[in-house]
Structure formats: C-alpha cells, structure tokens
Amino acid sequence: MAIGAIFGGPIAGFLVGNYGRKLAMMMCFLPLFVGYSLISSLDNIATLYLGRILTGVGTGMVSLSTPVYIAELSSSNLRGMLVGGFQLFLGGGMLLVNALGWCI
Questions:
Q1: Which long-range contacts (CB under 8 A, 24 or more apart) does 28-35 make?
Q2: What pTM does this model have?
Q3: CB-based contact 19:70 (threshold 8 Å)
Q4: 2-103, what's its fold?
C-alpha cells in the first residue's frame, strides 16, 4: 500500500493542478474502488498485491487532494484546525488498524 501511495501523490497533484480540487477528489474513487474490488475477489496472490497497490494509489491521492480542498473551503480562523485534524485522524486511523491487525 505504501508503494502505491508514492505514485498517488503525483497523480493527485497533476489532477488538482489541471482539473481542480473537487474533480481530483472525485477521481480518488477509481483506484480505491478497483483496488478493493480486486481484494474482495481474491483469486490469487497477484490479485491481492495489485489491489493493495491500487488502494495505496487512492490513499495517496486522497492524502494530497483532501487537505487542499479543505483549506480552500474553510475560513481562515478554522483552516489550521480542519487540515490538521484531517492529518491527525488519518494517522490515528492507520495506527488503530495496524494495532488491531497486530492483536488479531
């Protein structure tokens, strides 16, 4: 997933710069949907790896485009809290998933 996220950032940067923030966020749906569809079908290990890479691309895209979109829509007195809160909850969610995966 981390390998896919490396490629998701530049893809989202291109989309944000050329097509706008809102459309870039909507385009994050495609790799996430295809990736999770592949993971759920799970025919072989290659399908799992491809699904994980695609979900990583989608996660990288979301991690870049969402804070930009939030920063543009929010008022100046709430901007830091909202963008920082997004990153905080994103990191906290990853920590929770990894901790639960370790426990199971």
A1: 28/58, 28/61, 28/62, 28/65, 29/58, 30/58, 31/4, 31/55, 31/57, 31/58, 31/61, 32/58, 32/59, 32/62, 35/4
A2: 0.82
A3: no
A4: Growth Hormone; Chain: A; (1.20.1250)
Task: Identify residue 8 by its one-letter amino acid code.
Answer: G
Please state the domain extents for the chain. Answer: 2-103
Amino acid identity for residue 87 in this structure: Q
Nearest to 55 by CA among 37, 36, 73: 36
State pLDDT tens for residues 65-99: 988 998 888 999 999 999 999 889 988 998 998 89
